[in-house]
Structures are given as C-alpha cells and as structure tokens.
Design a protein that fits this description.
The protein has about 140 residues and is an alpha+beta fold. It has two helices and five strands.
Length: about 140
C-alpha cells in the first residue's frame, strides 16, 4: 500500500525533451561509434520523464530513484533533431512505481520500454549513502 501522503495515481504522465547536440552523441561514449543519439542519453531522457511524472505529487523530503531499466533503442537520431520522452505511471506497488516509456524524434519512435523507480525518503537514503561511503574510507570495501 502506498503511503497516504503520496497523491499518486495510475495514468500520471511526464515528459522530457532535448535537441541532440555533440554531448548527446554515441561518439561521446564509445569510440569508434556513430554520430547519432547515444543510448545512455535516450535512457536518461526517459528516466527524467518518469521522474517528472510524479515529482510534484510527493511530499517534501521524498523523491524517487531509478532501480530498473528495460529499454529498446529502435531508431537513430541525428544531431539537431529534437527528441521527446514520455512516461506514463502504469503500476503502483507500495513505494515501487512502474512506468511505460516512449521517445520520439521529429520523424518517428526512437525508443520504448519500462522504467522502475522507488519512492524514498531523501534523508534516510542519503544516510545510507554516507554509511556506504564510510566503509570505503575505512577500507572495508576493495
């Protein structure tokens, strides 16, 4: 059951958009590669759309974090073309959120898939991050 402080409902939608430039190209991640939208950027854009779908519905001090991505990159997008990602909240299972995501450039569908995000209390989450970092500092993690 989702926390009653969360005003979430299935069907919430979010978007995110970029115009592909040099920093978004596959050549920025892998060499040799091609000068088209890199898959990591596409995934990030879809993930941002999922975040945007719910961010205004969470109480102060809460956010969502991405825990699972299953995306197909189905078409190449050249520099200068806009890409818009759309996310729809399809499932709510406690603090687990499942989004159907799609992305389009100015010509066609370029990607689609599923993204899972979890609702977390920011301070508790950051405390766990600090605890893990202290293990590294103490030499407990190699």
């Amino acid at each position: 059951m989702v926390n009653p402080g969360f005003r979430l409902k299935r069907g919430l939608k979010g978007t995110a958009q970029i115009v592909v430039d040099k920093k978004h190209l596959a050549t920025e991640f892998i060499q040799p590669s091609v000068e088209s939208l890199g898959t990591p950027v596409l995934i990030n854009l879809m993930n941002l759309a999922a975040f945007n779908a719910v961010k205004d519905y969470l109480p102060q001090g809460y956010t969502t974090v991405c825990t699972y991505v299953n995306v197909r990159h189905v078409a190449a997008t050249p520099p200068g073309m806009a890409v818009t990602a759309e996310a729809v909240l399809e499932e709510i299972e406690g603090n687990r959120l499942i989004f159907r995501v799609k992305a389009y450039d100015e010509a066609e569908l370029v990607g689609e898939g599923v993204i899972e995000r979890w609702i977390v209390e920011e301070e508790k989450f950051l405390q766990k991050v600090r605890e893990r970092k202290s293990l590294l500092i103490k030499g407990s993690i190699s």
